[in-house]
Design a protein that fits this description.
alpha+beta; 60s Ribosomal Protein L30, Chain: A; Phosphoribosyl-aminoimidazole Synthetase, Chain A, domain 2; 3 domains; six-stranded mixed β-sheet; four-stranded mixed β-sheet; globular
């Protein structure tokens, strides 16, 4: 029997387009009899740039890192749809949850230039945790978001290892997160980070600045360097004005510029908790974006002003190095960088000596940098420099 016209056309179609194999049951035009077999060149998610299998393997690595950060309250393991944490409120009359989210900013550019990724996770934890400890909160658990164009398992492992290290310093648990692979969204070996922390404080022990009084002293706790703020200006000075290479050795710093700029942000959680256990603290300010000028004013009551002594603390050499190289004014420096003070505690005058002694015994560099003064008139500059 001669083949029908339809059968001839189908045979030609099959011969012309080999990757797509299509067959018909003979002697039928019923569309439900049309069958599609396996495509020899079928697309997968991996072809589009997303390797689900690689991401699943990374989860097993993250589980091991998270296991090292476990603390009472953690339920289950990494890998579920959400992280579980059981609050222990047995010894709390009125517990309040405190949360914060932050990133690392363009400090990540330094990590890319150095091809060193195991410290920015510490920065991520620090920037979130330091924002809740100033309210008296104990950090409980942390979650992260890591996004990159193509998942590099080694880079991701290094980043999350740093996050785990930061969580151990802060005594909080890494209970979950998200690793996103976003093809064409980032340059090769580049990524972005975000962090989320939740802590708890007894309502009666919230530190909100309401107990600050005229005569209170300001204690400055040293920073580890630039922390994670002002890096757009830092990069402009170092790599546009000075045209430095990332591995350039800077005699004034005693190290390469890359090593200095990648120094992790200090985490103050345990320092603050040690002082709060049995000593009075009226207010705390995390000196982050906005520097000393903007951040200290966030906790000072309207009826108070501040007196700060410029020469009362040690300023690490990186700050004077940047200021001179970039011809940056004192005011701009104070509004952009921490200038050596990462945390300020406002304390009663009669407790100042004991708190300074306690912090020094813990290995902290601390300085009596000023005091709270009465605000006699509205308006004007609320910070007086001596």
């Amino acid at each position: 029997m001669l083949p029908t016209i339809l059968e001839i056309l189908c045979q030609k179609f099959i011969l012309t387009f080999r990757p797509i194999q299509i067959s018909f049951f003979r002697k039928s035009l019923d569309p439900w009899v049309f069958q599609e077999t396996i495509m020899t060149n079928s697309l997968t998610y991996a072809d589009a740039g997303v390797d689900v299998d690689k991401a699943n393997r990374l989860v097993n690595i993250v589980k091991k890192i998270a296991q090292q950060t476990r603390r009472p309250g953690v339920m289950g393991e990494i890998g579920g749809f959400g992280g579980l944490f059981a609050l222990n409120v047995e010894h709390s009359d009125n517990p309040v949850l405190v949360s914060s989210t932050d990133g690392v900013g363009t400090k990540l550019k330094i990590a890319f230039m150095m091809d060193k990724h195991d410290t920015v996770g510490i920065d991520l934890v620090a920037m979130c945790v330091n924002d809740i400890v100033v309210q008296g909160a104990e950090p409980l658990f942390f979650l992260d978001y890591l996004s990159m164009g193509k998942l590099d398992t080694q880079i991701a492992t290094d980043v999350i290892t740093g996050i785990g290290a930061g969580c151990r310093q802060a005594k909080c648990a890494l209970i979950g997160g998200e690793t996103a692979e976003m093809p064409d969204f980032y340059k090769k070996n580049e990524y972005d980070l975000a962090g989320f922390v939740v802590g708890m404080v007894e309502n009666s022990k919230i530190i909100d600045g309401s107990k600050i009084r005229v005569g209170n002293r300001l204690i400055g706790i040293s920073s580890s360097g630039l922390h994670s703020n002002g890096y757009s200006l830092v990069r402009k000075v170092c790599f546009e004005i000075l045209k430095l290479k990332i591995d350039a050795f800077i005699p004034e710093l005693g190290k390469t510029i890359g090593e200095e700029l990648l120094t992790p942000t200090k985490i103050y959680a345990q320092t603050v908790r040690s002082v709060m256990m049995d000593l009075p603290v009226s207010g705390l300010a995390h000196i982050t974006g906005g520097g000393i000028v903007d951040n200290i004013l966030r906790i000072i009551p309207d009826g108070c002003n501040i007196m700060l002594r410029k020469q009362s603390w040690e300023v690490p050499p990186i700050f004077s190095y940047l200021q001179q190289a970039g011809n940056i004014s004192d005011r701009e420096m104070m509004r952009t960088f921490n200038n050596g003070i990462g945390m300020i505690a406002v304390v009663p005058e009669d407790a100042t000596a004991e708190i300074l002694e306690r912090l020094t015994a813990m290995g902290e560099k601390v300085f009596d940098i000023g005091e709270i003064m009465e605000r006699k008139e509205a308006g004007g500059d609320r910070i007086k420099w001596l």
